[in-house]
Amino acid sequence: MSIAMPKPSEAVLSRREEIVSALRVIVPGEGVVDATNEMKAFESDGLTAYRQLPLVVVLPDNVGQVSRVLKYCHENDIPVVPRGAGTSLSGGALPLEDGVLLVLSKFNKVLDIDFDNRCAVVQPGVTNLGITKAVEHRGFYYAPDPSSQIACSIGGNIAENSGGVHCLKYGLTANNVLGIEFVTIEGEIVRLGGKHLDADGHYDMLGLMTGSEGLLGVVTEVTVRILQAPETARAVLIGFPSSEQAGECVASIIAKGIIPGGMEMMDRPAIHAAEDFVNAGYPRDVEALLIVELDGPKAEVDHLLTEVEAIAGENGATTTRVSQNEEERAAFWAGRKAAFPAVGRISPDYYCMDGTIPRKELPKVLAGMKAMEKKYGLKCANVFHAGDGNLHPLVLYDANAGELERAEEFGNDILKLCVEVGGVLTGEHGVGVEKRDLMPEMFSETDMNHQQRVKCTFDAKHLLNPGKVFPQLHRCAELGRMHVHKGEVAFPDLPRF
C-alpha cells in the first residue's frame, strides 16, 4: 500500500484474543467476525487500490451495543473505524490492522415518516435511494442523490457530506439533514437537532458532524428533510465540439440566473463508455455532453428549456435533444449514473478523483488535465457535477503494469490545480487517506491545528478513524499549550477552563 497508515500498536495486537472475546460478550451471536477469510470482505472500501485487514469486524444490532463497544475500546485504547456500506471513494472506511471495524449495516430500518412535517427518521444503514423508495408513494423524495445511491448509506452520506446530480438546486447532505443521534468514543449517546427548528444561540454542532468523516462520533440515527416531487421535470442533452465550450455554456446558464435541478457534464471517453453500457441515446459525435434538467411548474420548465437551448446555441452547441416523457428523462440520467461502472469496462483500473473549482475556471482546468495526460502517459475520462464545479476525473491505469504510482501523481496534480484556481480538495468524497497528505496544499499549519483541536474535544486519544484526514497528528496536550510571557498568559482577563 503506497499510502502510509499509522504503525499498529503491538500492545493491542498481542491482546487480540482477549479483545475478540470481550466484544463477543457485548455483541453475541454472529455479530463479531474474526476469521481472516470472512474479514476479507471488509479489507477495502470504494478506493480499492488500498487494502488492509482489520483486527476484528463488529456488526452491532442496536445503539446500546454501539455504546458499549465504543466505551470498551476507549477504556482499552483500541482504535475504531466506523463503516457503512463501504462505498467511500477516499479510503475513509479503510480498516486498521490494530483497529475494530464497526459496521453499521444492520441499522437499516426506516423508523418514522412524517409527511406533515416533511421529514423521515431512519437508521444510518438505510440506503440513500431507500429513503426515496419509502416516501415516493406519496409523491415525495430525498433530494441528494450520489451516483452510488442504490448502495451508499445515509450514515456514510453524513460522514462525507455527499452530493449528487441534484445538489446544485437542492443542496448537499448538510442542507437536507435535520438531526442525528450519535455515540461518542466514550460511549455517550448524544442527540443533535430533529424535527424542530434549530435553537438560537447555539453552535452549529450538526453542521460540524456532517462531513466529519467518522473522526468525531458514530451516527446511529438520522432525521432527513423530504421534498415533494416537482410538477414537471425535463432534461435536455446538449453536445459540444469541445469541453471548453461546454464549460463556457455552464457558466452562461448560471450567469443568466437559471438554477437547473441538475447540470452534469461528460467528455468523449465517458460519453462512449456510458452509451455502450446503457444505450441512453447519447450523441457519439461530440467531444462533450451536458445534461441539464429543469424542474418546477410546467410553464416555467417550458420557458427555461427555451432559454437554455438559446444559451447552448450561443456557446457553439452542435446538438440538443429534450426528453419527451419520464422514461426518456430517466434514460438520460441512467447513462450518467452508470458512468463510473461504465468506465470500468474500458480500463483495467481507474482512480476516481473529487475536487471542486469555481465554475469560471472549468475551461482552464480541463486544458490543464489534457496536458497532464501527456505528462503521465495516462488517459482521463471526465464526469462533472458541472453546475457547482464538482469534478470527478477518472484516471485510467493498469495496476498490474505498475501504473498506480503514476495515477496517484496524476490525481495529486489535478487536486493541486483545483486549489491553485481557488477551489478545494474535495466536493463530496471526503479527504480520507486519499487526499490526507495534500491537506497542506489548502490549509496552513495553524488551520490544521485548529481542526485538530476540534478532534481533541471529541476524541482526546485519537481512537476514532486515525490515519485519516490529518497528514500528521499532534497530541492534544501539544495543541493545548499556552504561551506564557513574563509570567502572564495572553488575554489574562478571559476565563480559563
TrEMBL record:
Gene3D superfamilies: 3.30.465.10, 3.30.70.2740, Vanillyl-alcohol Oxidase, Chain A, domain 4. Keywords: FAD, Flavoprotein, Oxidoreductase. It holds the Pfam family FAD_binding_4. The keyword Endoplasmic reticulum does not apply. This is ATPase, E1-E2 type:FAD linked oxidase, C-terminal:FAD linked oxidase, N-terminal. It comes from Fulvimarina pelagi HTCC2506. Residues 50-229 form the FAD-binding PCMH-type domain. The keyword Oxidoreductase applies. GO terms for molecular function: FAD binding; oxidoreductase activity. It comes from the Bacteria. Its cofactor is FAD.
